[in-house]
């Protein structure tokens, strides 16, 4: 009896344990999934720290490489800048040498033509113009030569009276009114219609004052192009003159030189008058201008210079192209506020056109 009672509880416990065993296993598995073992956590921490140390090492190596590259780049930039400075200095030196060499022929040529004129008695020099005044005295006449270097084409222009048709003024008045440093009389004129009007084609500021007039007889246009070069000759159509882009100019007679060669002087101008005060404008190969003024005490042919004498003088001075302007009592040269020549009228004659020069 006792053995039976004792044996039943054991059977019941075994059966109960067998019955709940699956549930206990399930709970244990769930616990394992929700809370990993401490050993696994420590391993993960160990792995993460090791990985971080490894990555830090790689980053440090990259930074070191970047620093080395930056140093090399800075060094390269410094070397390039130094080379650039050396190259710039070399180029500037070459340019300066080239400019000096380029200026030498001009300097030599200018010295050559100046030697024929002598020593200037007066000089005007600015960043726009250089003027040198010389006294000439070949023996048969007296006069002046004014050599002009236009550094800026705008340093020379032409005035036309006082702005009204037929109006006139003296060279001194024109110089003063326009603020010029020098001036000479320009083209010829004809009296009539209550005024004194310029002959033939006249151009002011690139505009034809009274239209284009084809050259007739021996009349010749003379003036300056917009680029600052002396232009002139006979023109039978406006298109011919327009090609030279005249900035200003006037008309008289005759042409004296072309390309350094003497031109035929019309018979009338050989004798009527034979001698006279003259105003002539010409140019050199380097585009410098030469203005020749000869003096005389009247217009009766007994004083002054002949056109043939003027031609010979211009050729000897090396002038290339030359044109006779109005002469006689019209001849005038003003420089630095004074009349240089002695007008044959006893005083300056009012005329329509003047060539003016500015500092």
Beta-sheet strand percentage?
25-35%
What is the radius of gyration? Answer: 50 Å
- Strand order in the largest sheet: 1-2-3-16-15-17-13-14
Structural class: alpha+beta
Order of helices and strands: HHEEEEHEEEEEEEHEEEHEEHEEEE
Low-pLDDT parts are 1-13, 33-47
- Average pLDDT value? 86
User: Judging from the principal axes of the Cα atoms, what is the shape?
Assistant: elongated
Integer count of domains: 3
Please count the helical segments: 6
- Per DSSP E runs of 2 or more residues, the count of β-strands stands at 20
Q: Biggest β-sheet: count, sense, barrel?
A: 8 strands, antiparallel
Q: How far do the termini sit from each other?
A: 153 Å
Q: Helical percent range?
A: 25-40%
Offer a quick outline of the entry.
The chain has helices spanning 2-34, 38-117, 171-178, 238-242, 267-271, 307-316; strands at 122-125, 129-136, 143-150, 156-160, 182-185, 189-192, 195-198, 203-204, 207-208, 220-225, 230-233, 246-252, 255-258, 261-262, 278-283, 289-294, 321-324, 333-335, 338-339, 353-357. The protein has 359 residues and is α+β, with helices and mostly antiparallel strands. The protein folds into 3 domains: 1-25; 36-109; 118-357, no CATH class.
Describe this structure in words.
This protein has 359 residues and is α+β, with helices and mostly antiparallel strands. The chain folds into 3 domains: 1-25; 36-109; 118-357, no CATH class. Helix content is 39%, strand content 25%. The chain has 6 helices and 20 strands. It has helices spanning 2-34, 38-117, 171-178, 238-242, 267-271, 307-316, and strands spanning 122-125, 129-136, 143-150, 156-160, 182-185, 189-192, 195-198, 203-204, 207-208, 220-225, 230-233, 246-252, 255-258, 261-262, 278-283, 289-294, 321-324, 333-335, 338-339, 353-357. The strands form 5 sheets. Strands 1-2-3-16-15-17-13-14 form an 8-stranded antiparallel β-sheet, with helices on one face. It has a 5-stranded antiparallel β-sheet with strand order 4-20-5-18-19, covered by helices on one side. The chain has a 3-stranded antiparallel β-sheet with strand order 11-10-12, with no helix packed on it. β10 (220-225) and β11 form a beta hairpin. The radius of gyration is 50 Å and the shape is elongated. Residues 1-13 and 33-47 have low confidence and may be disordered.
